[in-house]
């Protein structure tokens, strides 16, 4: 039976996540001040019920062995590996299409915070729009973008560029805007408050 490339990549990420957790747990990298202050205490619990699960996992110990150290470092490494794999997939998809592609990092439309990882090719020109009641943050991850501010007559008022040096722009609510990739493709993170309401959150010019 042939294994798909995606499945093989997941196996590789899983393997390196285990390796990283073993290195961290064996003190290969050394431990920071947080470990000696709190995390070295087995099955340590403090704070309210919202902190319970986090402390329980990170300080989980059996027979004097700090399994929580291995578990947390494994989960962190696995999450970063999967996110990087999705980033590469997103990049590949956008190289083949003239429209943008995105990954929503929030769980549902009702979440109070919405974040979208967006890969946008140079040939894609999104519609001019505004968010009447919500501010929005653009954060560039790769490439360069130009964000254009318009008036209601579609006349350009201002232009902003975001790149490695100026990597973030906070856009006030109720501003007509359009973002364009200045490189072959660009990847950026959009952050806006939720929940998402299609008929209220955005208006197109």
State the helicity in percent bands: 25-40%
CATH topology of the largest domain: Jelly Rolls
Total helical elements = 5
Q: Unreliable stretches, pLDDT < 50, 5 or more residues?
A: none
How much strand?
A: 25-35%
SSE layout:
Layout (H helix, E strand, L loop, with lengths): L4 H21 L7 H7 L9 H10 L2 E2 L2 E2 H30 L4 E4 L8 E9 L7 E2 L5 E7 L2 E6 L5 E7 L5 E4 L4 E6 L3 E9 L4 H4 L1 E2 L1
Antiparallel strand pairs: 1-2, 3-4, 4-11, 5-12, 6-9, 6-11, 7-8, 7-10
What does this protein structure show overall?
The chain has helices spanning 5-25, 33-39, 49-58, 67-96, 198-201; strands spanning 61-62, 65-66, 101-104, 113-121, 129-130, 136-142, 145-150, 156-162, 168-171, 176-181, 185-193, 203-204. A five-stranded antiparallel β-sheet has the order 3-4-11-6-9. The protein has a three-stranded antiparallel β-sheet with strand order 8-7-10, with no helix packed on it. A two-stranded antiparallel sheet has the order 1-2. Helix 1 packs antiparallel against helix 4 (67-96). The chain starts with a helix and ends with a strand. By secondary structure, the protein is an alpha+beta fold. The chain has two domains: 5-94, no CATH class; 99-204, Jelly Rolls.
Characterize this entry briefly.
The chain is of the alpha+beta class. It has helices at residues 5-25, 33-39, 49-58, 67-96, 198-201, and strands at residues 61-62, 65-66, 101-104, 113-121, 129-130, 136-142, 145-150, 156-162, 168-171, 176-181, 185-193, 203-204.
